[in-house]
Amino acid sequence: MPRLLIVKTGDAFPEVVEAHGDFEALFQQVLAAAGFDAAVFDARHEPLPALEEIDGLYITGSHAMVSDAEPWSEALKPWLVEARERNTAMLGVCYGHQLMAAAFGGVSDYHPAGRESGTHEVTLTEAGRADALLGQLPERFPAQLTHAQAVLEAPEDAVVLARNAHDAHQALRYGPRQWSVQFHPEFTPEVMRAYLARQVAALRDQGQDPEALLAGVGATPEAGSLLARVAEAVAGEPSRRD
Q: Where does the Glutamine amidotransferase domain lie (predicted)?
């Protein structure tokens, strides 16, 4: 069984936590359904764990902003660089996506077009279609999204794997076993609707139609498969413990 660690970088809204579980619980639910266990490390309150005890990392979303450069978030950057140097498998999600990109030399900040929320289609690039992880998905697939910040400049050595009309960096690869995605593979339609319900005023202020976005929420099985696919890839490799 691979030693998987979920790096918790924030909390979901209280009503989401009560009804569906916090960010890390959503990850654990998906992984458990595929037969995998994952420990949790709260990066805001706990010391950085030893990387030699970890086979795969997941970095969650957060309501924090990478550009605020909070001390706990900044402390994760060199740790993630070390994890990349050790070729530890990684999947960053939303905040985790933006944090990984910033740690590896890119720029993450507020998106000039504002917030992207709801179920939206994502398209694989040519590199994405050939990627070991995302290449198993259809060329176009729906994904759950809620973010105000984004990767504005990808690291020079990163490969863009997916994009859409709003965001040129929906998925990136930084090495053979290191990926990040702007969308939320752990979100169910119910969680996505709860987030949209919280954002009605902000979305209207941005000129969007929250009712149409709510009506457009749907299942995202292809995007949702990525969490288990990473664990399955790690489980299928020779032991890295020696």
A: 16-196
